[in-house]
Amino acid sequence: MSTDHRVPHRAEPSQPVSHRWIAAITVANVGLFTAWFGPILTLLGLQTQRFAGSDKEAALAWIVGIGALCSTVATPIFGALSDRTVSRYGRRLPWVVAGTTGGVLSLILLAVAPGLIVVGIGWCAAQIALNANFAAITAAVPDHVPRAQRGIVGGFLGLAQTVGGVVGTGLAVLAGGIAGGYLACAVFLVIATLPYLAMRRDHPLDPAEREQFSWLEFGRGFWVSPRRHPDFAWAWVTRFLINLSFAIGLVYLLFYLGDAVGHHSPAQGVLVLTAVNSAALLATVLVAGAISDRTGRRRVFVCVAGLVMAAATTSLALWHVWPVAVVAVAVLGLGMGVFTSVDLALMIDVLPAAADRGKDLGVVNIANAMPQVLAPVLAAPLVSSFGGYGALYGVAAALAATGALLVYKISTVD
Questions:
Q1: In the 8-state DSSP scheme, what is residue 18?
Q2: Which residue in 27, 52, 292, 350 has its CB near the most CB atoms, within 10 A?
Q3: Per-residue model confidence as pLDDT tens digits over 166-223
Q4: 178-199 vs 19-38: helix axis angle to the nearest 10?
Q5: End-to-end CA distance of the chain
Q6: What are residue 65's phi and psi, to 5 degrees?
Q7: What is the per-residue pLDDT for 169?
Q8: What's the rounded mean pLDDT across residues 241-255?
Q9: Which of residues 305 and 88 earns the better pLDDT score?
Q10: Residue 8: is its pLDDT beyond 60?
Q11: What average pLDDT does range 330-337 have in this prediction?
Q12: How many CA atoms lie within 13 A of 368 on its CB side?
């Protein structure tokens, strides 16, 4: 078998990616996160409120949690499959097409759902399909982006996540009802993905280079030994804790505004807060990534980001008033901008094997998806039995601070 430097899909990229490629992958990610956050931030909450009434918190917790569990399983599997895919169009692009198609169909199912069972089925299907897309697009970053550009590319992808939240929430609120919101998100997903597909930039896998398939080895491949790869393990834990903090605060944001803050229109309030969050994120996401690339340092940025996010959620825990919520979400955006840009670069820097980038980044995504499973499980009893929204956001602050400090357990990245 050829050595890594002779095999394109295994080689460490050395040529800078173009501004056009960065723009295309950023827009594609905006489409993905629009399809995710439109439902998560608004549409699923409105549906559970319609179908479950006073049991809306528990219903939303179940739907979001089971959907996140599907995401947790799907991303590493699709990442591993993309690592092994032989196609004239490359390893990743076929999964982008499949994931986008499945995502659109799932959003249409959600738009016409007559009850909670179909909502749950539709959201699980959407999570599986969209994660096929996400796994393939994320793996394209280490496939194509050299180390010196990973911070700035991570910054643009972090920007895409927040812009997707704003666009998704905007479409959900302004499209004329729940069904219209889902359909608008589906249409936007397609439009945003087409420019990336049109570039047709991907590394095909030579059939001779594909390892012989074994279900046993395929399953074993998802375990990344902390003993053999401790920096990958610590980076994963850091990402998990900070994302769990964010997910705990996010899952009941609609209800927080209505029940604790007393906002006259919680859905519109979520839209305003996501817009404020995006504006704040813009102030740090690209700058942090660029400075991280220039200095070669990652850990200090992740640490500061986590502590800033902890300060923001602490204020939400202490003061349940609209002005504080606006300021807190702005501060949260500043921290999230730094974290999302630099943490992706850090994770890519500690990936165990070039040939398994898709699979290993899928394992990394478990640190994004599993918090969505755990957040409703933790949030529901915190709100209902153990201190309400003060306890909810206090726990979120403690998790973010812990993740921030643990980043210094990583030894091979500055």
A1: P
A2: 292
A3: 899 889 888 888 999 999 999 999 999 999 999 888 777 766 666 665 666 666 666 7
A4: 160
A5: 34
A6: -65, -45
A7: 86
A8: 83
A9: 305
A10: no
A11: 89
A12: 21
Amino acid at 100: T
Return the pLDDT at 285.
Answer: 84
Residue 249 has phi, psi (to 5 degrees) of -75, -25
- Report the half-sphere exposure of 337 (CA within 13 A, side-chain side): 23
Token pair, residue 163, equals 């812009």
Q: Mean pLDDT, to the nearest integer, of 105-111?
A: 97
* Statement: the pTM of the whole predicted model exceeds 0.85: no
For residue 386, count other CB atoms closer than 10 A to its CB. 12
Q: Are 403 and 239 in contact (CB under 8 A)?
A: yes
Lookup: tokens for 103 = 């995502």
For residue 99, give the amino acid letter: G
Cα 13–Cα 295–Cα 135 angle in degrees, nearest 5: 40
CA 235 to chain centre: 16
Residue labelled with tokens 């489409």: 31
Q: How far is CA 304 from the centre of its chain?
A: 20
Angle between helices 56-84 and 230-251 (to 10 degrees): 150
| 403 close to 238: Cβ distance less than 8 angstroms | yes
DSSP states along 99-111: HHHHHHHHHHHHH
pLDDT for res 220: 66
Q: In whole angstroms, give the CA distance from residue 180 to residue 106.
A: 14
Indicate the average pLDDT of the chain: 85
- What mean pLDDT is predicted for residues 289-309? 91
Residue 274 CA to chain centroid, in angstroms? 15
Highest average pLDDT, of 219-228, 273-282, 350-359, comes from 273-282
> Which pLDDT does position 360 carry in this prediction?
79
DSSP codes joined into one string, 261-325: I--S-HHHHHHHHHHHHHHHHHTTHHHHHHHHHHH---HHHHHHHHHHHHHHHHHHHH--SHHHH
How crowded is residue 59: how many other Cβ atoms within 10 Å of its Cβ? Answer: 21
Please choose, from the candidates 248, 290, 250, 274, the residue with its C-alpha nearest in 3D space to the C-alpha of residue 382: 248
Name the nearest CA neighbour of 373 among 72, 76, 133: 72
Q: Based on DSSP, count helices (H) and strands (E) in the chain, helices before strands.
A: 16, 0
Q: Residue 130 above 80 pLDDT? A: yes
Mean pLDDT of 117-125: 95
The rounded distance, in Å, linking the Cα atoms of 266 and 264 is 6
